[in-house]
Amino acid sequence: MKIGIVGAGALGALFGQRLSAANEVVLLERKRDVVDVIREHGLRVDGEARPARATSEPRELYGVQALFVFVRATDTLRALRPFVSELSPATAIISLQNGLGNEEAIKTSLGGTISLVIGATTESALTVGPADVRRIGDGTTVLGSAGASPEVVNRVVRLLTEAGFRASAAYDIRPHLWGKLIANAAINPVAALLDRPNGVVLTNEHAGDVARSLAQEAATVANAMRIPLPFTDPWSYVRTIVEQTAELDNSMLYDLRAGVPTEVDFINGAVAAAGRRAAVPTPYNETLAALVKARETTRAASRPPSGPLAAGTLLPED
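Above: the chain's sequence. Below: its structure in token form.
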């Protein structure tokens, strides 16, 4: 199968390398140094390199049978705009991105009748260098339909399973999306604002108190929306995720350091927006979202006028 991957960061490299064992994989990446490394050395995971194609030209992915989207939620519209009217109606679009709102952004870009598969993954990878990552533990990936037929969802599940991932299908993907959202909402802004790896949420009592409140508040919103979460204790679930990713700098921290917009509007901001619709107060998520936005503004103002950003990314599942 010919597979396209939009975004060659940590998870794009991880999934691309695994999928390339039995498929033709083409990665779309803006950073020229990453494209050059993939072309010369392939994708490397845990020291094992596999060949893959890389390009900065979207047209080289127009003929793919499956298109995985791994860019930040803030970049979805930009990244998919070149694919408008260029993909086959049978092409499966798969999003494993952070936060809420990706389904709407993808359909805004490509149309509301696309074969879209939305998923939540707890796969984690540490970027060692461009297109070179270390897998952190064995995560799970749950997929569901946002327009794709059950047959397409099951085909993507088989594709990932054959590549060595633990993948499954869910009739209702919302509980799993909200489960991951709760973890991201509790971990990412706290560690990012403290400029520390995810483990600070467990090693610092005060950070843990804030993260626990964020998780419980987000779970209250989900419950008010009658979304059955895949766990009974949100804080215990968050602690499990932190233990798996304690050494990682999450993507929100990476973005703050780079002086670029974070995904906070799609994470804590999404919790707050859902809370307003459900008439559930969300003071913790609103406050953390505002603080991250304030940090974005101050970091952007103090950022040097030129200079390259670091290649790759460190994600909490990501």
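The radius of gyration is 18 Å.
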